[in-house]
Amino acid sequence: MFNELGLSTKVLSAVEAAGYTRPTPIQAAAIPHALEKRDVLGLAQTGTGKTASFVLPMLSLLERGRARARMPRTLILEPTRELAAQVAESFDKYGVNHKLTVALLIGGVSFDEQSRKVDRGADVVIATPGRLLDHLERGKLLLQQIEILVIDEADRMLDMGFIPDIERICKLLPITRQTLFFSATMPKEIQSLVDRFLHNPVRVEVSPPSSTAETVEQRFVRSGETPKDKRATLRRLLKAEDELTNGIIFCNRKRDIGTLFRSLERHGFSVGALHGDMDQRSRMATLDGFKNNKITLLVASDVAARGLDIPKVSHVFNYDVPHNAEDYVHRIGRTGRAGRSGKAFTISTPMDKKLVAAIESMIKRSVTWLEEGEAAEAAPAESRPRRNERRDSRRDHAARESAAPAEAKAAAPAPAKPVENAKPAESAKPAERPAERARPQPEASTRPHESKGGGEGRRNRGRRGEPDEPRVAFKDTPYVPAFLRRPIEPRRPLKSSAAAD
Ligand code: AMP
Fold this sequence. Notes:
By secondary structure, the protein is of the alpha/beta class. The longest helix is centred in the N-terminal third of the chain and has 14 residues, at 81-94. It has helices at residues 9-17, 25-35, 50-62, 81-94, 111-120, 129-137, 154-159, 163-171, 188-197, 227-240, 254-266, 280-291, 302-305, 325-332, 353-363, 374-378, 393-401, 405-410, 434-437, 448-451, 495-498; strands spanning 40-43, 74-77, 102-105, 124-127, 148-151, 178-183, 202-205, 216-222, 247-251, 271-274, 297-301, 315-318, 342-348, 368-369. The N and C termini lie far apart (54 Å).
């Protein structure tokens, strides 16, 4: 029970208000040690309740003392802007009974505003490494008073090339600080960070998910190889699913996201896109639109979607079979959460045989194939819009285009009535397309690896942000991140996206 962990009364009442009855295994294991001010090495992935395992003890410990100008008391490092923003939301949720100042230092939003907040004194700074270093280099922030450091998703930091930044930051912190360090895996670079920057840590571990929840109905779906075939297969599936309230469509390559997004939009679906090249405001507005049910479908990459807390998703569609079986488990884990039922469809071409076999071997079960014509029978006419199609394209569009997340939140809810024969033309002005918005935006960040690609790292990234193409790295180490093991695929000519149906 939560009240056996040593958390303060204020925190316990916030946890109760959040509706949690029992701590998750990582919370039960980590919180008592964190409250004893021990360093903690937590081996856990997102979805395990790991965020609360450091936020709750931090809130309890922060009740004593107060922040000074430019000298925050605690620092949380996150690999991406979305994760950082999500942790900030956790402070809103679990810190309702506290009067703490939380500063979110991420790229893509005003530097000066962040600086003013730090100036006034922040109890908690949540940052991506690049933007944090910007503040430090400009002398706007001092780390001498940091009592607790959290390094979250350390293995992702490694994949994204943030380790040198983390080392620099660690060296600026007082040696007496407490460190809470989380990683899903322990490659040797991460072990070396732990050895250098943690003091006699308590190691707590929860097993990684290698199986999919029983509550998720999984299907593989045969499809032709061409993008056109795959898009048609996806549309058939979407139209056949009466129970679809919202869904995430995963693509392996970020360049396919824009193409698929435009195609679905043209076919009248309520859809948003999420990938690392979009500017921060568009990403947050899209995410808010999806969370608030103004957008029904989200086309996303693994990097953009991993770790995001979207509690209720009825469907997951794998437009591509993931290259890595673990990614399959992650993707599928977006639905059927907390005992709810969900459905997951994976579109598979004859080229994907090996990947499909790897998935079945990882999850230790065979997945049923959707019978030939099953989806087609349920959705005979492509032109027939179903309940999951666009309800009000102008409003959906506004939610995505919204200049700020707050505005997206304030937008009126979408009407429940489906719009028959939704006209694609009204949202097809080239300048309003997400592909346009997705161009890297100049940011206040002076650090090249944060000025594009959503706070995501500089190493192993595609030309415009996410780790899209494998690059040679870690030549002399046995650890090779999963995405580097993927086969190299030739770039498709750019005009294929323009010619998409
Ligand atoms: P995380 O792994 O931190 O991303 O958390 C995954 C999800 O679990 C989030 O939606 C949390 O709100 C939820 N959660 C965290 N702790 C608990 C708990 N003790 N009981 C139920 N849900 C929880």
